[in-house]
Amino acid sequence: MINYSKIFTAFTMVISLGLLYSCHKEVSRTTGWEYNNSKNGGFEKPDFKEQQPGPGLVAIEGGTFVMGMTTDNIMYDWNNIPRRVTVPTFYMDETEVSNFDYVEYLYWLQRVYGANHPAVYRKALPDTLVWRDRLSYNEPLVETYLRHPAYRNYPVVGVSWLQANDYCNWRTDRVNEMLLIKQGILEHDPAQQDDNNFNTEAYLAGQYAGTVKTPLANLAPNSTGKRGAKIEDGILVPKYRLPTEAEWEYAALGLIGNTQDERIAERKIYPWSGNGLRNSDKKSYGEFEANFKRGRGDYMGVAGNLNDRNDIPSEVKSYWPNDFGLYNMAGNVAEWVLDVYRPLSFEDVSDLSPFRGNIFKTKATTPEGALEQKDSLGRLKWREVTTQESLNRRNYREANNINYRDGDYPSNITNNWNSKPSDPNTTKNMYEYGVTSLISDKSRVYKGGSWKDGAYYLSPGARRFLDEDLSTDYIGFRCAMTRVGSTLTSKRNH
C-alpha cells in the first residue's frame, strides 16, 4: 500500500531544502563579507555561467598547429615559413559577410547620420567600380551586385580593410544594444540620430543612457538605487573584429576533424581532407570543393555539368563547411585579416596568439583626468599612449609596434646613416616602397583563394597583401570575436 504521508513528508523536505538553498547568501571566501548586500557596501557578484557567442558566430576551440606553407612554394615568395604556434579559443563567422548584411549596415548609417553627417554613409559605401575591366563587359555587376535581391546572399566585395573594421565596430554596438533590450534594460529607440546613438564604449562610460525600461538595482550606499549595465554583469559581448592571420589559418585548416588524442592523422593541404580538389563522398563524388578558377578561361566548367557552378562569387553557404562548420574558407572570395604584412612575420611574432599590427591606445581624458566627451558621431575619443607613459614598462616602450623588429630603426638595413630612430620612414627605407616592393605600414594581409584565383591560393597557408584603403572584386571578409574565460566551450565542435 502506498504511504502517501511519507511521500508528502519527503516532498516537503525537498521543497524546504530548495528554499533554504535559494535563500543562502554567498559570502567572500577571502573576507567573509556577504555579496549583493547593500548593508555591507553593496559589492555585487552577478550570476554568470560562460560567454555566449554573438549572432552568426561559431566556436573555434583553440590549440597548437603548424602555421605556414603546406604546399610547394611555386611563387617563391618565402613569406610563409612553417612555424608552430598556439591560438586561443575564439569565435568566427560561419560565413563571409554578405551583401545583405552590409546593406543593413548602410541603411543604419543613412538613417542615423544621413541628415547631418552624410560623409559617414559615403565613406562606408563599397567600391562597386571594382567590377570594371578594360577588356570585359561587367557593367551589369557594377549596377546590381551589391543591392539586387538576386545577389543578396553573395559575399560583399569592394570593401577595404578600413571599411571592414568599421563594420565590425558597428556590429558590436548593434548586438550589444539588442542584448540590453532583450534583458529588459533598454527600450527600442528607432529615433537615434547623430551622437545620440547606442555605442558600447559610450554606454559603459555613462555618456549614453538610451531609453531606459527597467534599470538594474544599484546596491551601493547613497546611490539612486538604479544603474545601467556594466562589464561586470557579463551581459555585453566583446568586440566583433577581423580575425588575426593565425586565427584565420587555424580555423580554415579545421584540424579538429582529423585529430585524435593530440595525434594529427593527416596534415591538411586544404580546409578539407585529402590532397585533391574534388569531393570524395558518394553523393557528391567528383564535384569541386570550392569556387576557384580551374585554368585559363575556365571559371565554372562546361554547360550541362557546371562543376564548380559559379563564374563569380557564389552564395556564402555554398559548397561544404569544414570541420569547424565554416563555409568557403577556400575559394569564393579571399578575406581580410587583422595583421600588417611582413614577409618574415612568422619569425618575429609571438608563438602564442601571434599578431603584428599593435598600436596601443588609451581613452582621451581632460587635464582633470575625466574622460573627454564623445564626438559628434557618439563615439569615445582615443589617443596613442605616449613614450613618457611607457617609460617604466617592460612589455612595450611606445604606442606603435607595427615595425617592431621588422622595419624599425634597429632592424633597418638601409645605408642611410643620416636617419634617426624617430624617422617615420624607416619601413620605407627598409623595404624600398615603390622601388623594389609595395610593403608599407598600411599593407594588410588577406588570406584564402577566390573565384578569380588558381588552386595554389586555396591552401590556408598562402598569404598576400594589399594596402588597407584599397579594395577589389575578389576580397571580402568575415568577423571574429575573442573568447573570454575558459578555453573549452560547453558545446564542442566534434
Describe the structure.
The protein is α+β, with helices and mostly antiparallel strands and 494 residues long. It has a domain at 56-183 and 229-357 and 450-482: paralog of FGE (formylglycine-generating enzyme), CATH 3.90.1580.10. Helices cover 19% and strands 11% of the residues. The protein is built from nine helices and 16 strands. The strands form six sheets. Strands 1-4-16-7 form a four-stranded antiparallel β-sheet. It is globular, with a radius of gyration of 26 Å. The chain starts with a helix and ends in a 12-residue tail after the last strand. Residues 12-23 have low confidence and may be disordered.
Outline the fold blueprint:
Blueprint: H1 4-23, E1 57-60, E2 63-67, E3 83-87, E4 90-93, H2 99-113, H3 118-124, H4 139-144, H5 161-182, H6 200-204, E5 216-217, E6 226-227, E7 240-241, H7 245-253, E8 259-260, E9 263-264, E10 334-340, H8 345-348, E11 361-363, E12 382-384, H9 426-431, E13 443-447, E14 463-467, E15 475-476, E16 480-482
Parallel strand pairs: 10-15
Antiparallel strand pairs: 1-4, 2-3, 4-16, 5-6, 7-16, 8-9, 10-13, 11-12, 13-14
Helix pairs in contact: 2-3
- What is the rounded distance between the termini? 50 Å
CATH class of the domain at 56-183 and 229-357 and 450-482: Alpha Beta
Helix content: 10-25%
CATH architecture of the domain at 56-183 and 229-357 and 450-482: Alpha-Beta Complex
CATH topology-level name of the domain at 56-183 and 229-357 and 450-482: paralog of FGE (formylglycine-generating enzyme)
Order of adjacent strands in the largest pleated sheet:
1-4-16-7
- Give me the strand/helix succession: HEEEEHHHHHEEEHEEEHEEHEEEE
Oligomer: single chain
What is the name of the CATH superfamily of the domain at 56-183 and 229-357 and 450-482?
paralog of FGE (formylglycine-generating enzyme)
For the secondary structure, the number of strands is: 16
Give the overall pLDDT as a whole number. Answer: 88
Radius of gyration: 26 Å
Number of helices: 9
Main sheet characteristics: 4 strands, antiparallel
